[in-house]
Amino acid sequence: MLKQPLRSAELIDEDALRTEIAAIVAGRDPAAFRPDLVACLRRTRQAALKRAEDILLEEGRGIACAERLAYVQDVIIRVLADVAVRHVNRMGNPSKAERVALVAVGGYGRGTLAPGSDVDLLFILAYKQTPWTETVVEFVLYALWDLGLKVGHATRTVDECIRLSRGDMTIRTAILEARFLWGSEDMFADLERRFDKEVVDGTASEFVAAKLAERDERHRRQGRSRYLVEPNVKDGKGGLRDLHTLFWIAQYVYRVRERADFVERGVFSKSELTLFRKAEDFLWAVRCHMHFVTGRPEERLSFDIQREIALRLGYVSHPGLKDVERFMKHYFLVAKDVGDLTLIFCNALEAEQVKKTPRLNRFLGAIRRAPRTALPDGGAFVVEHDRINVADDGVFARDPVNLIRLFDVAARRGLAFHPDAMRLARRSLKLVDATLRENPEANKLFVDILTSRREPEIVLRRMNEVGLLGRFVPDFGRVVAMMQFNMYHHYTVDEHLLRCIGVLWDLERGERKDEHPLVTEIIGSVQSRRTLYIALFLHDIAKGRPEDHSIAGARIARRLGPRFGLTPAETETVAWLVEHHLVMSMVAQSRDLSDPKTIADFAALVQSPERLKMLLILTVCDIKAVGPGVWNGWKAQLLRTLYYEAEPLIAGGHTRRTRAEEVKHAKAELSAALYDWDPAELAAYMERHFPPYWLRVDLPTKIAHAGLVREADRLESRLATAVETRARHDITIITVLAPDHPRLLSVIAGACTVAGANIVDAQIFTTTDGLALDSIAISREFPAEDDEMRRAGRITDLIERALIGTEALPERIARKVAAKPGPKPFTVETEVIVDNSSSDRFTVVEVSGLDRPGLLYDITRTLSNLALNIASAHIATFGERVVDVFYVNDLTEQKITSASGQQAIRRQLRQVFDRTAAEMKAEETKVETRRERRPSDAAA
C-alpha cells in the first residue's frame, strides 16, 4: 500500500467538518440536505485551497502542498461516503454483496494532488452492482461533480480489475498506484494480493517496455527536447511524468513502495535519491503555483505565467539575467537532473535484467552477451555490449585527460556510451580544474570532438548531459540551461549551440542540398573547418551578460582560441565571426538590397571572400537552430541575394557600370523580353518608370509588371492587382497598381492586418503618370497552391475595396486589435533610428519595439502624416520584437536632414509604440458606438 498523504489540520479539521455535516443532515431528507451539504463542502474546500496556497508561498515545498491537497480530498470523499451509507441508503444488516471499497488511483493514488488535478477513483464491488452500491456510488460522484471537480471513475469487481489490467496497461498502472480510502479494507487487500500474484509476477519486461514506449510517444507529442522555452511541466521531457515513470517501473520491478527504497535496492545512491526528491519537489511547487495562478489545470509553463511563477518562488533579477530567466534556468537544470536520473535508473534496471533474461526491453536495446573487449587507446576503456565503458573505476582519477578522451574515442569509433561510464564521469567532474582545461592534449581532443565527421552534436550533447562540457569550458557552463525570455528563441542557449553544430554537420555532408544550394556549393571550399566549427560553438556563449553578447563573445573567443590550438589568424577570424554573427541576417532582412550603398557598406565590413563564406554558413546554421518554423525560403533568398551582390565587390571581380549605364542596360533587357509589343507602345511604357525602378527590380518582376499595367490600360482602369506565389521562398507577392497617394502603403498594410496576413517586405514605385506600383511580400500560409491563391484573392479584394472607399478599414482594424492584443508578458524597449548614412538617396528610418496587431498600419499611417514618401519597407519579426525599416524621403525627394524633422519622426513613431491597452480599448469603444448609431443615422 502506498503511503497516506500528509495529514494537515492546517487545511481541514475533519472532526469539525463532520460535526457541521451532522447538523446539516440530521432529520432531513437527502433531497433537502444535499444543497446545504455541497455548499458546506465547497466552502471547506475553497478555504483549504486558499490556505494551501498561502503555505506554499511561505515555505515553497511542492510535494507537501500536493500531499496536503490530497488529504483534503480524502477527507471530503470519506465524509461523503459516510453520509451515503448512514443517511442516504442506510442498511441495518448488509449482505456480502452490499460491500464497497473506495480506492484512489492515478496521481491521486500516489497521495499527491495539484489544485486543478482530476480525482481518479475506483469503486471495488464484492459482486455485481446492487441497488445499494449503485446509490452509494452515485451519491459520492454527483456530490463531487457538484463541487466542480473533474472525476475519473470506474466501478469493478476484483475479478474485473485483474482481467482488465492484464490487457490494458493504463488500467494496470492505475491499480499499481491504488491507495485505500474508505470501505472494505479486506476487498482492497484481496485486490493487492491478487494483482501482485496474477498480473505483476513474470511480466516486468512487458511493463517496462510499455511504459518507456508510452514515455517516448509522450515526448514526441510534447516536443522531444527538454529545453523548450515553454515546457509542459507534467508531460514534457524532464517533467513530473518522467519521474512518475521511474517510480512505476521501480514499483513493478523492484516492488518498492517508498522513494527511500531506491537506495536499499541499489537503484540510486543517497545523493541521487536526494536529487530525485529535490527535482520532484521543485516540479510539484511549479505545477501547484501554475494551477493556483491560472485557476485551472494548466500544465504548460507559458510565457504568460513564467514571470509570476518566478516571483512566487522568490527569484530576483541579476545583472544580465531577469528574474524569470533565472527561474527558467533552474527549471531546465532540474529537467536535466531528471534526464540524468533516468539514465542512472536504466543502468540499475539493466543490471537487474541481465541477471534474469538474455534479452532486454526496447529502451535498453537488445544486448548481446559478449565479453568486455579492451580498446587500444591507452587501456583505459573497453567495449561492453557494443558500448564504450571504463576499464575500472580509477580511470579518470589516474589521468583526468581520460574524461575528454572517453568522448573522443567514442566519437572516432562511433560507439554509444555505457551508463556506468556516464555515471563515473558525472561523479568525477571535480577532477576538471585549471590544469586540465589548459592541457594541450585535452584541448586537442576536445576540438577533434567538436569537428568530428561522425555526428559531433551527439557526442557534445552527451558531454553536456554529464556536466563535463560546462566544466571544461566554463563560459559554456554559464549558458547551460539558460533561457531567453522571448518568443523568438525556442530553446535554451546551450541547446541552441549544440543544434547549430548539428545543422553545420548536416550541411557539410550535403544532406540539405536542395534547401541550401549555395551553402552546399561553398562549404567545401572553406579553408579552415575548425575555425568555422569553433566560431559556431562560441557565437552565443556570452548570452546573459550585461554587455552586448557579440562583443563579449569576441573577447571570449580571443581568450579561448590559443587554448584550443588556433593560430593567431584563426583566432582573429573566430572572434570576428562571433562579434558580427548577427550582421548578415540583419542586413538581409532589414535593408534594401537593391541599394548600392547597402551592399558597399556590408562588403567594406566583411572585406574577405573567406569571411563572407563563413559568415553566410554561420548565419544559416544560427537561424535554422533557433526553432521550428523560424527558417523559411524568403530568408534564404534574402541571404543569397546579399551574398551574390557583395561577393563581386569583396573579390574585386569587376567594375560596376555607372547608374546611367545600369538603367540603359535594364531597359534594353526588358525590351528584348517584350519583343512582341508594338514599338510605340513599348517606347511609351519605358518612359513611365523613374530610374530607381530600373535599378531595383529584377527582370521577371519587370515583365509581370508590364503585363499588369498593359491590361489595366486596356480596361481603362487605374486600379489593378496581381498575385504571384513563390512556394520555394515561403512568400506570396501581391502587386497593387493604383493612383499614387501618401497613404497607399498604409491602406495595404491595414487590409493585410484585417486579413491576418504578415507583411515581410514591400517595394514602392511611382510612375511618371501619377500611379503607384507597390509590391508587397506576405508570409505564405497554405502549402497547397490553390488554397494560397484563394487566400491571396481575398486579400486583394479587401485592398481594392479599401482603396475605392467601400471598406472602412479603421473600424475593422480597431476590432482586430482589440480582439487580439499583443504579447502581454514581454517588454521591449522602443527604439527609433533616423539614419542618413546608410543610403545615398533616402533617409533610413528603423523602428524596433514590441509587436502587436495593426502596428505596421499605424507606423505607415504616421509616416504618411509626416508627409514622407516610402520607397521601400522591410519588415522583420523576431518573436515579440519587430524591426521595421523604411527608406523615405520628403515630397521634394530629398533626405530629411533638418534636426526638427528628424525629431518629429522619432517622437511620433515612439507614440505609435506607446499606445496603451486602454487607448486601444477606447478606440474599439468608439468604433462600436459608431456602428450602433449607423442604422439610425442611415434612416435619418
From TrEMBL:
One of its GO terms (biological process) is regulation of nitrogen utilization. PROSITE patterns: ACT, HD. Residues 493-615 form the HD domain. Residues 1-374 are annotated as: Uridylyltransferase. Residues 733-815, 844-932 form the ACT domain. Residues 920-940 are annotated as: Disordered. Its cofactor is Mg(2+). SMART domains: HDc. Its EC number is 2.7.7.59, 3.1.4.-. Belongs to the GlnD family. Modifies, by uridylylation and deuridylylation, the PII regulatory proteins (GlnB and homologs), in response to the nitrogen status of the cell that GlnD senses through the glutamine level. Under low glutamine levels, catalyzes the conversion of the PII proteins and UTP to PII-UMP and PPi, while under higher glutamine levels, GlnD hydrolyzes PII-UMP to PII and UMP (deuridylylation). Thus, controls uridylylation state and activity of the PII proteins, and plays an important role in the regulation of nitrogen metabolism. This is Bifunctional uridylyltransferase/uridylyl-removing enzyme.
